[in-house]
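We emphasize that the prediction below concerns an isolated chain of 292 residues; any contacts that depend on oligomerization or on bound cofactors are therefore not represented. The input was used exactly as deposited, without trimming of termini.
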Amino acid sequence: MTKLTTITTALLLGVTTTVLAADYSKSGIMYDHALHAEMGMECVECHEGAWESNAGTDLLLPEKASCANCHDVESMDNCGLCHVDVDDPWGYAEKASAVDRFSHVAHVESEMDCASCHGPAEAIVAAPPKVDCRSCHTTAADLQDCHVCHSQGEEYVPDDHIVGWELWHGVEAGHDQQNCSNCHAQVDCQDCHSGDNVERPRSHRLNFAFDHSWEARGNQIECATCHMDPGFCADCHRQYDVLPRNHSRADWLLPTGDGGAHGTEALLEMEGCISCHDTGASDPLCADCHGR
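Result of the prediction step, given as a token string:
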């Protein structure tokens, strides 16, 4: 039995379960990738244009001439093999590609197979979600990599970023940060939310300034999500004359003897001292009292 006879018979007998289960409401053409893959066909046999495509706007779907390599496309009895509505046959649904700069050639030259982006034959995805792209391509800060695939570059705005998006995007971000990270790097959030550009986080209640130290000690990593600069704490504490608890000890600084407990603490953990008392190597704070 020839390949043509096998495929045609299978289609006519209605064993194309993928076709029956698929939604072709937006296209006039139905196609069973799984069945053709079972017959040993390779993607390039129908989508040969992908091996030469450097633009996402290229139509890489097989034309009637490609189908004619195996099927008798001149027979009216075979129209139902591909066309959803035999009485009113029409082709593929037109859709403008947002990734108009996408290059299939670059991915083919990287020795990637079709399934890496489009999935297995039984579950083909025509346009892979961006999260799949990010499995190889790291998100660049300030939308610097948008131009790789989008000619609009930084001007490209997803469909869900409608009017008022800035007011409730925090809810979406809290629900699905992965979706945001497809376009935005973590530093993008910090750049926009720095200073007084946004209301304080929900965790920063009204009395947060008075008891934040407890939370900072318990989870410094969470604090560093926004307060990345190590000097942030020291700058704020200097501004408001907030001293560490051990600095209030009566013997912390003595004018005679060994100078007090601060010397012992400095020997044990000089890094703790430097985190606040770092005035540069040319003008060390210790030298003010201990000489140069």
